[in-house]
What we know:
By secondary structure, the protein is mainly α.
Amino acid sequence: MTTSVKYPPGLVALFLVEMWERFSYYGMRAILILYLVDRVENSGLGLTTADAAAIYGLYTASAYILALPGGWIADRFWGCKRAIVVGGVVIMIGHVLLAVSGSAAMVFFLGLLCIAIGTGLLKPNISTMVGQLYDKNDIGGRDAGFSFFYMGINIGAILGGLIAGYLGENWGWHWGFGAAAAAMFFGLINFLRASRTSLRDKGGAPAVHHHPDAATGRRDHLFTGAIGGLVVVLVAAAALTGQINLTSAQGLAQAMGLIIVTVAIGFFLNIYLAGDLSGSEKRRMIVLALLFVAAALFWSGFEQAGSSLNLFANDLTQRQLGSFTVPASWFQNLNSLFIILLTPAFAAFWIYAEKRWTIPVFVKFGLALVAMGLGYLILVPAAHTAATGVKVTGLFLVCTYLLHTVGELMLSPVGLSTFSRLAPERFTSQIMGFWFVAASLGNLMAGLLAAGMDTEHAAGLPDAFTRIFLVSAGFGIVLVLLARPVTRWALGGSERIEETAPAQ
């Protein structure tokens, strides 16, 4: 496939499926923390900011870490299509449970669990199917295609934030959750139709999975068992020594962080050491591990949108436009709006650049981190003003979301493209799951960071925003400096792939 084939048959169908799924996810996410902290007499759960932020982080982290077993199930048993259908059904059930939960907290949390499980099945596999539409060395076309696909994500996100956010804040929280259930139903119907037409030859069940030899199989099983055992031992040790408190939301979030880090490292080592990889595949895995760390750091700052930045908009931002009060949740839609506006320019640029020069993926990720950090630097003077008790103009958040969007467009669709391209062929869905584990870790870190950024005590916000800027921008600059030597060592100076047979 040439780079001129940017949008092959099937891409539009996947675009629409992801659009409706993201409507349901982001529509619910827009109001989740507001619902959790709202007073019980207003039909909220009446939680503290710290507990609500921890629960928010736990939920979003769970939704993404479950992409790892979701990819594994598709690679070994179901194939992408079946995993997506089952995931969509479970997501829809989860949203229905949220809508009917009333004051029953356990029903509400069961609904969150269903959404997390369904998202874990759907997210890595629909991205894998997008990757299957492109030749591995069509870097520019693949980046452009994933950028277009990413626009679908954000059309769904902005519609979900607007509709579910408005219904939740003005009609009642469970109206917003119900709207998300309806959106997932439309997404599921669209995918079932596309499966019989433009996607009929994609995402089928895999051939019978087997290891090339008994020794490789034993190593795989040994590593898998060791990972599970290590997770249990580490969490138990941390609980027994008082490092974490498993009876609190914040303690559970800390335990989840320990689980995510352990699983991520164990998963990487399992494929690297027991995956029967060639030398070039192992070097590409190291590249993916470095990008994983960068992505987790990026998402830890970016995903403050649903927690601390959402509360900043709600409590510290002037939202009155004449007689209309702008819902706080609507500020999150700025990100999606900017993505829709900027994606065509970014997609065209990736095609243009591919024909003239190569921009290393490390440079793209590094600049993304710098842009995200600058978004927080802009908020520092706003936080100083808010600390005096004066609400600030919404233009500060507009500028922050614009910079975060620029960073996201340099990292997220590029990351999807790169992970689908550099992954060893037989582990593609699992490696896509590994990419989403970075988002899982970042979301959890975002929740824990937000717990320390209470808008009721705004005096600490300037220092918190400054620290995020320094860490993010500093790591981004390091990535840019590493781009050339790492690309030369791991990829032979070029990101194009020469197919090699597995090591014997």
